[in-house]
Write a structure and sequence with these properties.
Blueprint: H1 3-13, E1 22-24, H2 33-49, E2 52-56, H3 62-76, H4 80-83, E3 96-98, E4 115-119, H5 133-136, H6 152-177, H7 186-189, E5 194-197, E6 200-203, E7 212-220, E8 234-237, E9 243-248, E10 255-258, E11 264-266, E12 273-278, H8 280-285, E13 295-297, E14 305-313, H9 340-351
Parallel strand pairs: 1-2
Antiparallel strand pairs: 2-12, 3-4, 4-7, 5-6, 7-14, 8-13, 9-12, 9-14, 10-11, 10-13
Helix pairs in contact: 1-2, 2-6, 3-6
Family: Belongs to the iron/ascorbate-dependent oxidoreductase family.
InterPro entries: DIOX_N, IPNS-like_FE2OG_OXY, IPNS-like_sf, Oxoglu/Fe-dep_dioxygenase_dom
Protein name: Fe2OG dioxygenase domain-containing protein
């Protein structure tokens, strides 16, 4: 079936998912087109029907993740006055520290019970300064870092760049899933498309765009006793970018995903796997063929919980216009066209109560 036929079939059956699918990325670099298409078909099914999936064999070394986690714990252990020196409400691009209850992702909630540190693209070696408005548009501005923890910046940026590289590998698979050429996103998200000559992998030399990816280090204190659903770890929401690459602390259930029957489905940490969930940019780009699914997090474990999402979006100056394969006479465009940077900044302003 075609992409739109797949979507129409899914809508007509209206089967509510009750678990999150697991997709193995072991073949993501395969030189065989058919093998990559099989992987893309799995991704397409998950994107149309769930909007969430786990990935295993993702290629990010465990020590890179664990080192970033240790830095995250050390940062959130700092005194509040130290963290508030880099509060995100003092920066125009919302990078920096977000204290407990400072964000409210659910309009019916009373605040999100987590604290975070947000940062975006930056070279580890500091050979270049922050990117300008010609690249980052509405989200222009430098990262801000704590000065109290040695090697903090370098360690968390190492994980950031590893996650960005995974995201770049996923974009050609998403393109195949959308019946597009594998290089469709190359000029929109800084992807270097891999290609094969005589069984040898090469990278495209085109680098005309830049990755618009924001990472958050998050700390969720435990909620015990009676829990007011208006104040939970993070309220019901959709993510804003194309997709999120989420690491969750093992052994602690918190993430829940809302299915079409309005039931909350647990998405527990899975050993060796990351969570991928689609965001609003992909929903707008695909005219809602791909789902941006509502989710929330509630930490009732009795212990502190940590997670690290990377929100991977299109370049901030790219217009979110509907992809041709997602539009037809019976499925006209649903959204007004807006740049990615304008959309992300608008959602930040809504979440943090700023204009």
């Amino acid at each position: 079936m075609t992409l739109l036929q797949d979507k129409a079939s899914s809508d007509s059956q209206a089967i509510a998912f009750d678990s999150i699918p697991v997709i193995d990325l072991v073949d993501i670099r395969s030189s065989d087109t058919n093998t990559r298409q099989v992987l893309a078909n799995q991704v397409r099914d998950a994107c149309i029907n769930v909007g969430f999936f786990y990935v295993k064999n993702h290629g990010i070394p465990e020590d890179v993740i664990s080192n970033a986690l240790e830095m995250s714990k050390r940062f959130f252990d700092l005194p509040l006055e130290s963290k508030m020196k880099i509060e995100n409400k003092t920066t125009a691009n919302f990078k920096g520290y977000a204290p407990l209850l400072s964000a409210n992702n659910d309009s019916e909630g009373s605040g999100d019970l987590h604290e975070g540190l947000q940062f975006g693209w930056e070279e580890i070696d500091q050979s270049t300064g922050p990117r300008g408005e010609d690249i980052d548009g509405a989200m222009t501005g430098a990262n801000v870092w704590p000065t109290e923890i040695p090697n903090f910046r370098e360690t968390v940026l190492t994980y950031y760049h590893a996650a960005v590289q995974l995201g770049k590998l996923l974009f050609p698979i998403f393109a195949l899933a959308l019946e597009l050429p594998e290089d469709f996103f190359e000029d929109k998200v800084g992807v270097q498309v891999l290609f094969v000559i005589d069984s040898t992998w090469f990278e495209s030399s085109i680098k005309t765009r830049y990755s618009a990816a924001i990472m958050s280090l998050l700390h969720y204190p435990p909620q015990t006793g009676h829990v007011d659903d208006r104040v939970i770890g993070i309220g019901a929401h959709t993510d804003w970018e194309c997709f999120t690459i989420l690491w969750q602390e093992p052994g602690i259930q918190a993430l829940q995903v809302l299915n079409t029957s309005n039931q909350w489905v647990n998405a527990p940490p899975t050993e060796g796997a990351l969570v991928i969930n689609l965001g609003d940019q992909f929903a707008r780009w695909t005219n809602d063929v791909f789902k941006s699914t509502v989710h929330r997090a509630i930490n009732r474990s009795g212990v502190r919980r940590y997670s690290v999402p990377l929100f991977f979006g299109t370049d901030y100056n790219v217009k979110l216009e509907p992809i041709p394969s997602c539009v037809s006479s019976s499925r006209p465009p649903k959204y007004e066209v807006i740049t990615a940077g304008e959309y992300v900044k608008m959602r930040f302003q809504a979440a943090y109560g700023q204009k």
